[in-house]
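Give me the 3D structure for SGNH hydrolase-type esterase domain-containing protein.
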Amino acid sequence: MSAGKPLTLVTLDVQAASSLLASRSTDPRQPGKAQHPNRYRFESPHSSQAEVHLSRRFLSAPAVPTRRVEFVGDSLTVGFGNVGRTWCQITAASQSFAALTATFLDAQLQVTAWSGAGLTRSTQQPAALAVRLSAGSPPPNLPDFYRRSDGAQPSSLYDYNLYIPQLIVMAIGVNDFVDSSEYPVMEAWTQVYVGAINAMNAVYPGVKIVMMQYPEAMLSAFQPGSGSVTQGIDVLLPSNYPVYETYHQAAYNRAIAAGISNVYYFEPSARVGLFSRGCTGHPGLAGHQAISDELIPYLKGMMAW
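Predicted structure for SGNH hydrolase-type esterase domain-containing protein (305 residues):
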């Protein structure tokens, strides 16, 4: 890191607060912020090591956490466009609900996600992903990209021994219901979902799996000009959400009926939808923080962490 540049970036309640330098002591607290609990995030920015920092030493590597989690999903999972509505090319992945949750739980994190992917069908792919697909190859669905080391290459098989999670959060299945002209067949869709769970259990014995359903207030209950959130667009049309909800609950019931005992069901409250949106209706930074705030205690209790 270049001499004199910030060593640590400080975020206060999802807003940039200050930068800390190794050459001086800085108090990141702000006047007037003591009336209620605040959330501080300290993050070291990526940088080259062309010059030694003012501290004149390299910091010791932190101990590797023993807890391991994996989040499986789509653009919502990785925080696509969470910086703002007009910043679709910028994603603060370190402030997605997956990353925030893993950091709080002091857990290693692996995110397996593909923008636009669903369980059985996918939506239009971002250009950066579409150009990597082989000519004529359809965009991958969850069963495809989960077994690949490179989601765009069918022949690249992933080695599941490289990372063995103790917990998997499946935040998948929104893109299957974007097109209301033809919904997936429920029997086939739930079969694919349960099949994906069985495949995970086969390679990760003893893992716990959470099926996560997003609330309507986050995906499709957004009304421009309502006053509760910044104007934007929906991820799903309001008429599509009940179908999405019914299919997810049916998949969970099917898993339980099949005797799968390590599967759990989680839906954040409507509160997570009461924040300004990022790009194309995706959650903004505050929305991701709100999801994480509700997911953390649920996972802590479930895992006894």
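The domain at 67-303 is CATH 3.40.50.1110 (Rossmann fold). Let me know if you want a second pass.
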